[in-house]
Amino acid sequence: MFFFKKKPAQTITVLPHPGVCPQGEVVAATVGQSIVEILLENDVEISHSCQMQCACTTCHVYLMEGAKFVSPMGTQEDKLLNQTGDRQRWSRLACQAVFEGGGDLLIEIRN
Ligand code: FES
């Protein structure tokens, strides 16, 4: 008899990153947690130098799909992202983007 692993209701797909997850990763997304919290709980060791206080940019990600499924950007996050040299309109600080449910996310870790 075969048992198939049930796909989680909603996921975060992380594109391959040489230092963090060379093969990429797909993790279950939990409503009410930030992207950083979700990744760390699933052993995806994204940088988070200020301990998720919105005071650095080490958790910078490109949120390539699913932007409408996370909390909106705040003023401080917007200011910090302006300090990065590679900001895109889909940039987020992963510790400030709280998953609100409704669909899957696709991200690229920048640092
Ligand atoms: S961990 Fe510093 S802003 Fe996200």
Summarize the structure.
With 111 residues, this protein is an alpha+beta fold.
List its salient traits.
111 residues, alpha+beta, Ubiquitin-like (UB roll), binds FE2/S2 (inorganic) cluster
Description:
By secondary structure, this protein is an alpha+beta fold. The chain has a single domain (11-109), classed as Roll (Ubiquitin-like (UB roll)), CATH 3.10.20. The protein has 2 helices and 5 strands. Strands 2-1-5-3-4 form a 5-stranded mixed sheet. The chain is globular and about 50 Å long. The N and C termini lie far apart (44 Å). The protein binds FE2/S2 (inorganic) cluster. FE2/S2 (inorganic) cluster binds next to loops. FE2/S2 (inorganic) cluster is lined by residues 48-50, 52, 54-56, 58-59, 93, 95.
In CATH, what is the class? Alpha Beta
Tell me the CATH superfamily: Beta-grasp domain
The biggest sheet amounts to: 5 strands, mixed
Number of strands: 5
Low-confidence residue ranges? none
Overall 3D shape: globular
What oligomeric state do these chains adopt? single chain
Q: Which structural class matches the secondary elements? A: alpha+beta
Number of domains: 1
Hetero ligands = FE2/S2 (inorganic) cluster
Total helices: the number is: 2
Distance between the termini: 44 Å
Q: Strand-and-helix sequence, N→C? A: EEHEHEE
- Evaluate the radius of gyration: 14 Å
Order of strands across the widest beta sheet?
2-1-5-3-4
If classified by CATH, what would the architecture be? Roll
Roughly what fraction of the amino acids lie in strands?
Answer: 15-25%
